[in-house]
Amino acid sequence: MLDYTNCYINQISVHQVGNKTNEEDLHLSKSPLENTNDVLKDLLLQYFLKPFAEPEFFSFTFSNEDVKLNPVYNFAAQIFDVPTAFHTSSVDIAKHLYELSTHPQIKSGDLFVVRLSDVVIEDELVDVVGIFKSENRHPFLKLDAESGEFSLNYDDGISIDKLDKGCLIFNKEKELGYRVCIVDKANKAEAQFWKEDFLQIKPCSDDYHYTKDFLSLTKTYVTKQLAEDFEVTKADKIDLLNKTVEYFKTHEQFDKSEFESEVFQTDEMIESFQHFDDSYRAEHEIQSADSFDISEQAVKKQARGFKSVLKLDKNFHVYIHGDRSLIERGVEEDGRKFYKIYFDKET
User: Fold this and answer.
1) Do residues 26 and 17 make contact, with C-beta atoms less than 8 angstroms apart?
2) Among 27, 44, 45, 336, which residue is least crowded by beta carbons within 10 Å?
3) Model's pTM, two decimal places?
4) What is the sign of the dihedral through the CA atoms of 241, 247, 249 and 255?
5) In this structure, is residue 124 part of a structural domain?
6) 19-41 b/e with 16+ CB inside 10 Å = b?
7) DSSP state at residue 288
8) In sequence order, what are the residues at sequence separation of 6 or more whose Cβ sits closer than 8 angstroms to the Cβ of residue 148?
């Protein structure tokens, strides 16, 4: 859990990073921004930190697992260890981003590098290095009144409610690659650029990712693999998805054997799921964990993707939230398919 209530900005440096392939320039500032007034600082904190209300944690890595070869990791370490090197390191970060900005659809933008203090993470006060990129400018109106006359103009600027890309690097667990969380509202063409090419990060081995990964794994099994192994209806799939979410919402501790028994129940389906589990984890390089504390935050986020809607042609949408035995599927003698639904009250 993060608490930004009493954090404050120490330094900010801003650079403009273009797209190298599109022959756009890199403009580097000569020094950090001068101390800004309190109102502007509050607005900047809102812009930088609001998107990280429910963070997902990562850590720096590198192709050969030697995190000390990761450039952004080293730039952040330099700032934490030698605060007077802040601006020089911010320039290095901007140069590194520019050298990587070679895909023709990567947008140019304003790069903010920020040093923050007194952010609370897991009841501990830590310093933070923030890297934020604003790629989209938005029009806004300016109404001026002079000598009783009004004039209306417009300008382009940065919306403090729409951070395009960002990361927070917490001065915690340095030997493991720091704690990092990110925001990336990228289009598909550059979907992995910020995360994989520039930052080079991997998910932390924590309860959040264990919960998230197992929910994703189970959803993929039910929606894609289950029908390959068994004869099931769409209502059967929805029932299993509902049971999965219900298990994670009603248990504090995850136990794989218990989960399989409660959700899949039959030996044949449990065996099928276990085979899929093994292959899925190997293919996606997911760390195995058969027991962990369930993350409510991860459940809340992942549950949104568990659909409980049964769509029948273009005429009906049936929402199935509970008892599977109250809906039956059948076929008329003339071949028309039907569902029979039982209920007590109509509202």
Assistant:
1) yes
2) 336
3) 0.73
4) negative
5) yes
6) bbeeebebebbeebbeeeeeeee
7) P
8) none
To the nearest whole number, what is the mean pLDDT of the chain?
Answer: 88
Structure tokens at 281: 């984890």
Q: Is 184 helix (H, G, I), strand (E, B) or coil?
A: strand
State how far the Cα of 58 lies from the Cα of 178, in Å rounded to an integer. 8
Residues 32 and 119 in one domain: yes
Place of tokens 């993929």: 220
Phi/psi at 327 (nearest 5 deg)? -135, 130
What is the C-alpha to C-alpha distance for residues 275 and 217, in angstroms, rounded to an integer? 12
Same domain, 253 and 269: yes
pLDDT in tens, 320-342: 777 777 777 778 888 888 878 77
Q: Domain limits at 294?
A: 207-341
Between strands 109-121 and 124-134, the pairing is antiparallel
Number of neighbours of residue 99 by Cβ within 10 angstroms: 13
Other beta carbons within 10 Å of 233:
15
Q: Are residues 187 and 295 in the same domain?
A: no
**Amino acid occupying residue 334:** D
Q: How many CB atoms lie within 10 A of CB 206?
A: 18
- Give me the count of residues in the chain: 347
Output 272 or 307, whichever has higher pLDDT: 272
Query: What backbone phi and psi angles, to 5 degrees, belong to 219?
Result: -60, -45
Q: What is the DSSP string of 191-253?
A: TTIIIIIII-EEE-SSHHHHHHHHHHHHHHIIIIIHHHHS---HHHHHHHHHHHHHHHHH-SE
| Helix or strand run (H / E) with residue 7 | none
Whether 250 and 313 share a structural domain? yes
Sign of the dihedral through C-alpha 273, 276, 277, 278: positive
- The DSSP letter of residue 45 is H
What tokens does 260 get? 């399989």
Contact between 250 and 244 under an 8 Å Cβ cutoff? The reply is no
